[in-house]
Amino acid sequence: MQQITFILNGEKQVVSADPSSRLLDILRDTLGLTAVKEGCGEGECGACSVLKDGKLVNSCIVPMGSVDGAEITTLEGLRDTAEGENIISAYADSGAVQCGFCTPGMVMAAAALLRENPEPDEQEIREALSGNLCRCTGYNLLVKGVTLASERGKEKGIWQ
Amino acid sequence: MAVSYVPATFEEAVRIRRETGAVPVAGGTDLMVRYRSPAGTLPDFPWPVMFISGLKEMKGLFLEGAELVIKAGTELAVIEHSEIVHPVLREAVRQMAAPALRNLGTLSGNICNASPAGDAVCVLYALGAEVELTSSSRMRRMPIEHFITGPGRTVLKDDELMTAVRIPLHSDSASFYRKVGTRKANALSKLSCTGFITVTENRIVDMRLALGAVGPMVVRSAELESQCIGMDLNQFSNFKPDLRKQYAELVTPIDDQRSTAEYRKETTLNLIDEFFMLIEKELS
Lengths: 160, 284
Ligand SMILES: Cc1cc2nc3c(=O)[nH]c(=O)nc-3n(C[C@H](O)[C@H](O)[C@H](O)COP(=O)(O)OP(=O)(O)OC[C@H]3O[C@@H](n4cnc5c(N)ncnc54)[C@H](O)[C@@H]3O)c2cc1C
Ligand code: FES
Ligand code: FES
Known about the structure:
The complex is a heterodimer of chains A (160) and B (284).
Chain A (H helix, E strand, L loop, with lengths): L1 E7 L2 E7 L5 H8 L18 E4 L2 E4 L12 E3 L1 H4 L3 H12 L9 H14 L5 H7 L10 H18 L4
Chain B lengths: L3 E2 L4 H11 L2 E3 L5 H4 L14 E3 L9 E4 L2 E5 L4 H6 L5 H8 L4 H6 L2 H6 L6 H9 L2 E5 L4 E5 H4 E3 L2 E2 L6 E8 L5 E7 L10 E10 L2 E10 L6 E2 L1 H7 L4 H18 L10 H23 L1
Parallel strand pairs in B: 1-3, 2-3
Antiparallel strand pairs in B: 4-5, 5-10, 6-7, 6-10, 8-9, 11-12, 12-13, 13-14
Helix pairs in contact in B: 4-7, 10-11
The structure holds flavin-adenine dinucleotide and FE2/S2 (inorganic) cluster (2 copies).
The site of one FE2/S2 (inorganic) cluster (FES) has 12 residues of chain A, from loops.
C-alpha cells in the first residue's frame, strides 16, 4: 500500500492503494464513483473512459502508480458543468442514449474531442469515438449527438 | 502479490532497477492487459514492477543534429501530432488502436514488447532507428534490429531502461505504408508494409522495405535493398520478379488466430507489388 495523491474532479484526493491497482477499481470501489463502467477490462470498449490530465484514457488499464500527481476527471466532475450538460443533453436529444452503459464513456470521449477541436467534422468525430463501443444505438446517432453538442456549444460559447 | 515502486525521478528509477530488477510499466497498455485478473483484484505480475509514466525526464521529442530524438516514454498520441516526426511514422501511429489507447501507450512499450506486429516497430526498422539504453552506470545505443532478438525477446539488461529512440532524418522521393488489420480499435496489425524510395537522375539511390507481422520478427533485408541501388527503370523492371521471389522466401508467417499463414503471405506479396509499382513510377 502507498499513499497516492491526485486531483479528482477538481479536489485533492489522497488514497491508500497498491500502485498496481487499477484506477477503475479505486474510482468505483474505494471512492464510490460509479459512472465509470467496466465493460471489457482490456482497453477495447471505452466504458471506463476518464480524462487524465485532460486526455481521454481507459481507466481499466491505468495503474494507480501512474496516477500520483495527475488530474483525473470523471463524468461526475463534468455532468453539472455547462460543458458536460451540453454534451449530455445533445446525446439525449439525438436519441444516442438507450441502455446507457456506454454513455459515460461516450460523454468523456466527446468532451476530450470538443476541447481540442470544437468544430469537428464527421470523420473526426468517428475517429474520436472509435475506442468506445455501443451495442444499442448504432454510431450514427452518437455522431449526430456530438455534432449537435458542437453546434450548441458554439452558440453558448462553451469553449471560449 | 508483486512488490511495486513509483520512482519520483529518473535517477531513482535506474537505482531501483539496478537494486531490484523491477520491470518498468510505462503506459501499461500491454502489461495491464496481459496480467489482468478479475475486477477488483490486482494484476498478477510475476515480478516486481515500477511505474514510470510519471517521469517527465523520459518524455519529449526534439531534433539533434541529423537525428530526431524521441524520448522513450513519449506517448503515441504526442508522436502522432508532432510535425517534426516523419509522416510515415505519424501515420503508422495514427492507425494504432484508438485515441485513448494512444494517450497511454508509449513508443518504448511498443518496441520493448518485441512483437513482430508492433506497428511503430516496422516503421522504425525502415527508418534505421537506434535505441538508447541507460543504467545507473552506463549508456549504450544500437540499431533496433540488434535490440530485438526474437518474438518477445530483447537484449535489454535487468538494470537498464530504454531512454530514447534516435531516428536519422530521412528524406525520400516517395514513401509507402499499408497496414492490413481487423477492426481498428482492437487489433494489432495482421501485417504491415513500410517502404521508402529515393531516386536521383532516374536511378535508385536508396530503397528500403520493412515487413511487419509476417514472421517471428520484422523483416528487412539490407542485402536485397542494396542490389537495387543504381538501377534505372529498365533494370528494376527486369529484376522485379526475382526480387519478389527473394522477398517471398523471407516471409514466413505463423498461423495464429488473427489470420492464416497463407492469407498473410499472399497479402504481403500484394503489398510488395504495390510498393514496386511506386518505385517504377518514381523511376519513370
Ligand atoms: C486495445 C488495444 C489495442 C492495441 N492496438 C495496437 C496496435 O494497433 N498496434 C500496436 O502496435 N500495438 C497495439 N497495442 C499494444 C500496445 O498498446 C502498444 O504496444 C503500446 O505501444 C505499448 O506501450 P505501453 O507503454 O503501454 O507498454 P507497457 O505495457 O507499459 O510495456 C510494454 C513492455 O515494454 C517494456 N517497457 C516499456 N517502457 C520501457 C522502458 N522505457 N525501458 C524498458 N522497458 C520498457 C515493459 O516492461 C513491457 O515489457 C494495443 C493494445 C491494446 C490494449
Ligand atoms: S472496460 Fe476499459 S476499455 Fe473496456
Ligand atoms: S446505449 Fe447501450 S451500449 Fe450504448
